[in-house]
């Protein structure tokens, strides 16, 4: 099948919420590369005008249901399937990302060559990793192993038949919807693959501790939510990660505080607890394949991240116990302009 015929069967779903100028860069990177729809989740900026100005089909989700990325992506796919029934592949792109030239060709060839693959993704890179330590951490986080994977991120190309076979994304999830979908795909015998090519460039615009905290808290919430969906499957939700967050972000700090105020004679044990954190940091910087200049900072933030991750877990548990729906946990837009935090 020729390249032009394959590209004609590609639908592109872009989702966003108050992305500002980033959305314009995103949409310009996908215009003309397949039929495209932009799905907006209640933006208060000019996102809808930007998309319409580029002659891109637009869906503005109603606020009667909670906004989630999963709901937006499902709405985009449903729109494309209805209006363009000849489509066979769906490329998902987040509105704060730009698609890299050549990615579509590479992804299409991979899915054509390997009929058992349902999802392919490449390397998402942070566009401005040296503007803040938090941007740099994003870039390091996305450098995952090449080959068969258990999950993809927000940017990926999927085989439409596989996506429809499992019913698409689970719309109520406010985060972690991609691993949950990939889990159901793998249960049906499909594979997820990460290719050794660049796919998208991401503009995190993350310059404050508050943004980093909320982003990491959202990850903890996602782990807890997906684990709760499949309580009998120990492989989903990374229960080892959940237990680690509880230990390093909750139990040990509580032990230190209780000992300081109630049992100062346990100062020796407190010192050992501090030593345990240092050992954990040391082991982290040796375990992940990151550049040497970034190894220590990555290791430190892996340990610091246990605290907001546990915050997210507890939020998930409390809301589930109370029968409440957790609102979106957003980190973009918490600062109005770049306030650089140097590496």
Question: How is the secondary structure organized here?
Answer:
Layout lengths: L2 H5 L2 E7 L4 H10 L4 E6 L6 H7 L3 E4 L8 H15 L5 E6 L2 E3 L3 H11 L3 E10 L6 H9 L5 E3 L6 E4 H6 L11 H11 L3 E12 L6 H21 L9 H24 L4 H21 L4 H13 L1 H17 L21
Parallel strand pairs: 1-2, 1-4, 2-3, 6-9
Antiparallel strand pairs: 4-8, 5-9, 6-8, 7-9
Helix pairs in contact: 9-10, 9-13, 10-11, 10-13, 11-12
How would you characterize this protein structure?
It is a single chain. The chain is an alpha/beta fold and 343 residues long. It contains 13 helices and nine strands. Strands 1, 2, 3, 4, 5, 6, 7, 8 and 9 form a nine-stranded mixed β-sheet that branches. Helix 3 links the parallel strand 2 and strand 3. The longest helix has 24 residues, at 239-262. The chain is globular. The model is unreliable at 334-343 (pLDDT under 50).
